[in-house]
């Protein structure tokens, strides 16, 4: 599937999550959802991004938004990652890569001339009705969580009007 476009319905999902149980998009209907896709637990960029979102989780909550990180790592790896860095965001495990494909973020990548499949770092801001309002592709980590927070606050303000 091509990348999710702004204004399109965000694909539904239910996946295993860190700490046990599952997480689904439907369970947050009525709230905004920040869904950030990252390649791999405990790598430098992914760690910085997860810590940045975790540090702002209370501000996202105040803006009516829930933050979910998603990668193809297992729940066991997510649990270890969350504990190591004291992460407060939900981490969804998409080992089958079905949701990553649905959102168009499981793509062919290239490094040092080697081609492989992986997650393109992407963030989607989904409104209370399940519509993608903002999509950030090929995310650069520094300042990104703050930019997404500003968009979530703006979305909350426009919803109140």
Description:
The chain is α/β, with parallel strands linked by helices and 161 residues long. The chain has 5 helices and 9 strands; from the N terminus they run βββααβαβαββββα. The chain has helices at 44-55, 57-62, 75-85, 98-102, 144-160, and strands at residues 14-16, 22-24, 32-37, 65-71, 90-93, 106-111, 114-119, 122-126, 132-136. The strands form 3 sheets. Strands 5-4-3-8-9 form a 5-stranded mixed β-sheet. A two-stranded antiparallel sheet has the order 1-2. A hairpin with a 5-residue loop joins strand 1 (14-16) and strand 2. The radius of gyration is 15 Å and the shape is globular. 39% of the residues are buried. The model has no long low-confidence stretch (mean pLDDT 94).
Pick out its properties.
161 residues; alpha/beta; two-stranded antiparallel ribbon; 9 strands; 32% helix
């Amino acid at each position: 599937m091509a990348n999710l476009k702004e204004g399109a319905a965000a694909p539904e999902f239910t996946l295993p999550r860190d700490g046990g149980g599952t997480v689904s998009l439907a369970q947050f209907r009525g709230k905004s959802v920040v869904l950030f896709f990252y390649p791999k637990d405990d790598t430098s960029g992914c760690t910085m991004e997860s810590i940045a979102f975790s540090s702002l989780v209370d501000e996202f909550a105040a803006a009516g938004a829930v933050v979910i990180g998603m990668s193809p790592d297992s729940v066991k790896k997510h649990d270890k990652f969350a504990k190591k860095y004291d992460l407060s965001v939900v981490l969804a495990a998409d080992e089958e890569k079905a949701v990553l494909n649905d959102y168009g973020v499981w793509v062919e990548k290239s490094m040092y001339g080697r081609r492989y499949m992986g997650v393109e770092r992407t963030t989607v801001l989904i409104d209370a009705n399940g519509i993608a309002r903002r999509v950030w592709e090929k995310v650069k980590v520094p300042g990104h969580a703050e930019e997404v927070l500003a968009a979530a606050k703006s979305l909350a303000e426009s919803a109140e009007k």
